[in-house]
Amino acid sequence: MSIPNKHYGELKDSYLFFNIAQKVKKYQAEHPDKKMYRLGIGDVSLPLCDAVIKALHQGVDDQANKDSFHGYMPECGAPFLREKIAEYYNKRGVDITAEEAFVSSGASDELGDIIDMFDRNTSVLIMEPAYPAYVDANVMAGKKIYHLPTGRDEGFLPTPKSAEKEGIKADVIYICSPNNPTGAVYTKEGLKDWVDYANANGSVILFDAAYEAFIEDPSLPKSIFEIEGARTCAIEICSLSKTAGFTGTRLGYTVIPKTLERDGMNFNAMWVRNRTTKTNGVSYIIQRGGAAVFTDEGQKQIHENINIYKNNAKVIMQALDEVGIWYCGGKNAPYVWMKCPNGMGSWEFFDYLLENIQVIGTPGEGFGKCGEGYFRFSSFGSPEDTKEAAERIKNLLKK
Ligand code: MLT
What we know:
Elements: H1 16-30, E1 37-38, H2 50-63, H3 79-90, E2 101-104, H4 107-113, E3 123-128, H5 132-140, E4 144-149, H6 160-165, E5 172-176, H7 188-201, E6 204-208, E7 234-239, H8 241-244, E8 252-255, E9 261-262, E10 265-266, H9 267-278, H10 284-293, H11 296-322, E11 327-329, E12 335-339, H12 346-357, E13 359-360, E14 362-363, E15 374-378, H13 383-398
Parallel strand pairs: 1-13, 3-4, 3-5, 5-6, 6-7
Antiparallel strand pairs: 2-8, 7-8, 9-10, 11-12, 12-15, 14-15
D-malate binds near residues 43, 131, 180 and 378.
């Protein structure tokens, strides 16, 4: 008899964003005449920029020609893209080589796959509120999970001391900065504390940098490798989804320094072994499009789009300011994290917005228990919809 993975039985019935989509679908079926304003899942609304589109077309043409045709791609990524990624870091003074940059089909895929490199008995520390896939992927893998709740008093940025206070000592530590869902961003000093802690304890940090391109304050670190000591304790997972509109195109990258070792095992070499076994790489055409993101033209164009999203965040923040609601994020991050009004629960507030003004957000409780009483708005909607949603929120909450 085949034995199913019993850990699936420990998961919530369905994934957060799937749950929300089902609720919205039901409401829409019952109210077909109502327009919905989607500030829920962080899915981009602007098309890919011109530089990327041109490179994708070129990639298609290459595949039409015997001399430029590509079959299987190198499993760890095309050298032309790995070099561009390394250059992206080097230009910022971060010393990364092309062989340390692995091309992936996106950060969420990678966040699930990467735990393959850790022993079954590994424990993981997840600071909450957190992107729900961290918990779910580790539940599926049967890992021991330590939930570290955080709150407004520490700016949603827990320190190693907070972990010690809870008696937590974990092998793997998830850090997401800029944070999804709170928008909080670690300073260099804040990250340095975690790097020192990980090196001292032999832990490995999984640093989720999916939102690094949204940082506008030059004093804030975009990469954990800007921090001294990170090359011996961290893996960085990045994405072109939000940075360059690749949510439907799928492309990301992961940086694993050659200097990251535990128990005589080298993580860069292990990941090469993993990738060469478990994937046949990302499509040539998509990697061509991805390489264009790192050109000067590509960088200029993606930042034009990012600025549009940042302006959306401002519109949401202004509306909350006008009705006197506490929030954080939105400045160096694409998410605005607010306190639900009048002591409402986060799912209660979700229903209240959906039913009264057809605005969709994400209930804080979906990111962990300590997210209860909070709510997240994404700035990735269209500017027109975001303006209308902000107006509706203002009018509803003024009452
Ligand atoms: C989010 O809304 O938290 C993200 O868009 C989900 C994701 O990246 O998978």
